[in-house]
Write a structure and sequence with these properties.
13 strands; single chain; hypothetical protein yedk fold; about 15% helix; mainly beta; 8-stranded mixed β-sheet; 5-stranded antiparallel β-sheet
Length: about 240
């Protein structure tokens, strides 16, 4: 799974890297984070058509991490849908429709994963060592994701807050050195795949071909357990763990 990640790159840097035409105003208010957690506000890259002209443009928008299906009775379900397994996207009602028409990229500087450590029998639960995993070349990791709109039935039609935008990160089976840390990893798409993944004109069948692309070279670094607490947030979380 992917349960925490870092996203601290400046909006303008993301706009340049992803060739974004529009940065939403609420995105500019989102502070950088070295410990993004479920239900936090996150930046998503999408391609949407203008309601008036029909022209499609690439946009940087704000969403809440944890997908809430349009048919859900309330937003609480999103806390259980932070990830979507690549192998079963079309089998789950909550993910099948977004996979066909609402795909996104979640820009991340890196993500965290936890590895269970061996313990002697009878000594209690195994401790878990956190690792920070990021592109070796320092580029942004484009996490493949889905997004959805949920309408709050308790709010009037003219209330701009009646719509909640939420997102989930797609995960796949871990490969290579990552499999030694955790059996799952987020699907990271190369720049050559961004246009196809984001295009509203591309359906589920064509997009399915991107679910097994190889990730970029990644660096895996053991870090302090300070990241375990969502209250901790800052660049010090990325420091390599002191030995011993």
């Amino acid at each position: 799974m992917c349960g925490r990640y870092a996203s601290f790159r400046a909006d303008q840097d993301l706009a340049d890297e992803f060739a974004i035409a529009t940065v939403a105003d609420d995105v500019r208010l989102l502070p950088p984070s070295w410990n993004v957690a479920p239900t936090d506000g996150v930046r998503i890259v999408v391609e949407r058509a203008d309601r008036g002209t029909g022209e499609v443009s690439r946009q940087l928008r704000l969403a809440r991490w944890g997908l809430v299906p349009s048919w859900a009775s309330g937003p609480a379900v999103g806390g259980r849908m932070i990830n979507a397994r690549a192998e079963s996207l079309t089998d789950r009602r909550a993910f099948a429709r977004p996979f066909a028409v609402r795909r996104a990229l979640l820009p991340a500087d890196g993500y965290y994963e936890w590895q269970a450590q061996p313990v002697a029998p009878g000594t209690g639960p195994a401790p878990r060592q956190p690792f920070y995993i990021h592109p070796t070349d320092g580029a942004c990791a484009a996490l493949a994701g889905l997004y959805e709109f949920w309408k709050d039935p308790t709010k009037p039609e003219d209330d701009p807050g009646r719509w909640l935008v939420t997102a989930a990160v797609i995960t796949r089976e871990a490969t290579g050195q990552l499999a030694a840390v955790h059996p799952r990893q987020p699907l990271i798409l190369p720049q050559s795949a961004w246009g196809t993944w984001l295009s509203p004109a591309v359906g589920a069948e064509e997009a399915r071909g991107l679910l097994q692309v190889e990730p970029p070279p990644l660096t895996v670094t053991a870090v302090s357990t300070a990241v375990n607490a969502v209250a901790h947030d800052g660049p010090e979380l990325l420091r390599p763990r002191e030995p011993g």
